[in-house]
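quick one, two chains, predict together pls
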Amino acid sequence: MSIRHQLLLAAGAVAGVLAVIPAKAQDAVKIGLILPMTGGQASTGKQIDNAVKLYMQQKGDTVAGRKIEVILKDDGAVPDNTKRLAQELIVNDKVSFIAGFGVTPAALAAAPLATQAKVPEIVMAAGTSIITERSPYIVRTSFTLAQSSTIIGDWAAKNGIKKVATLTSDYAPGNDALNFFKQNFTAGGGEIVEEVKVPLQNPDFAPFLQRMKDAKPDAVFVFVPAGQGGNFMKQYSERGLDKAGIKVIGPGDVMDDDLLNGMGDAALGTVTAHLYSAAHPSAMNKDFVAAYKKAYNQRPGFMAVGGYDGIHLIYEALKKTGGKTDGDALIEAMKGLKWESPRGPISIDPETRDIVQNIYIRKVEKVDGELYNVEFATFEAVKDSGKTKK
Amino acid sequence: MTTLFTILFDGVAYGMLLFVLACGLAVTLGLMNFVNLAHGAFAMTGGYVCAVLVNNSGWPFFAALPLAFVSSALIGVVLERSLYRHLYTRSHLDQVLFSIGLTFMSVASVDYIMGSSRIFIKLPAALEGQFDFFGVGIGRYRLMIIVICGLLTVGLQLILAKTRFGSRLRAAVDDPRAASGLGINVPQVFAFTFAFGCGLAGLGGALSAEILGLDPYFPLKFMIYFLIVVTVGGSSSITGPFLASLLLGIGDVAGKYYVPKMGPFVIYTIMIVILIWRPNGLFGRTAAR
């Protein structure tokens, strides 16, 4: 072997090493995960955190040659905290993504920071339509209330429900749900006979339910924050609304999988429109539910799926940019991404950066002694109508 | 017309529930002159004890109810002997800071042990649903609440007014020094009273899980209701908070039914009007002593 050969080999080896080094020597890609881990919304935060951890266990913590590091912060669903934490994460920890956001005000509070720092903000939970319009760096993997509320409105109008009384919590998502439902249901020929907005901190539904009962509707459209759904259903059957032949319909938040079993048989027969059910009959979902149950000893709900898809979106975007963390490039990479999620096929709308997904009509039934939302009709590739109107 | 009675019935049940939850607070605040904001924490303890016994250990609901009372009362007496009694002579601000701290600790520990999601107590089938009584819809569970709480109220009033213990308690409250001079063991009377109030809260917590919902934030969410009951009722007797609870319960339910848009404001309006009219509450003596 001549000296020249040896030199060439050495040079080649050095070049090879150099080519490898940048990938290894680069810092890890940091993701700031801001979730409510304490307070009334804590179950949302825990589900998302669980799902993100599960995904990283399954898929490994390296993407495009870069290690992924998640920094979890608890904002307690208080927007002021969210903003402060997002700022700290961006400035001190130099994160490449901020993600999570349990409630709409939290997601909105972080929006100006995402714009200013050009850091993608992945919304994994909050569901008000306007969120993605507040910054060109916001991408959502959860849902919007308009998606499920318009669909249940259409469905109800077409399926023999003529008169509906509504009971919604008096806050932004509740009003969104009510307005979108009303718009599609009345357009389909339905009539709203009674409209009640209940205070968010409402201890007892009795008087409102009595009003529903006296209005004698075909169905009650209900949207209350996830935790209150159980109370609502119990008092609904206590008051005999089920025996009076009044159905319960609504967006599926009320029948969240992680609460459904606690509601008891009162919940049977409730028809809701939603993006995810733990009973979704796909191989991918069965694996997901099994893995989640094994790891955390409970059923995943739609919040967990939002988190699972959120981290998947981050992984895929990094693959497309080859590990580069430039905010604009990442957002470009995310636009139009399509993949199979445990909830079914989903994609990111390139125009609005919001999620496009199937909405399923489901009915609560008993399967193997447990309550599940069993899907029986599908509306495919539903966009957020809260924006498409404009 | 029948709807009116259903509303009245629901209101009475709700009021009775508020009374059982809050009357322990009326005792500590009114009789012992101690501001105990951690009262809701004892109610929550009772609720969770009942839920664990019924849901996980398969106890019947009615057997678990007394245990909710006993466990809250036991925790109450332990805390009274170890912590609370040092604060009897301190200023109200110290008492407020101490008890609100205790509340936050209870919230965090229950969240840690039991998780943050709302839990329910599995009820026997006999308590579910409504029946018709001359066209008036009567909820079985609510009827049971009215019966239990009604009996309790009568019992409490009798104990306070007719028994030796009742007169000792009233004496100890009116003038602790003279009472101990007469051979009444004042700390013992206070400890017992405190524990009893906590036990009642525990029972109320167990009963209210079905109607108000039970989660770790219970003590904070309902603190305001307890305080309204005590301020409106005046804290010098059992009758005051009892009538105040009924008034608020009926006012709240009827307000939400007849004027749903204004519903949540009704009880606050009632409170403000009553307090302007009678600043010491409906049955208040002079509050400061």
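The mean pLDDT of chain B is 84.
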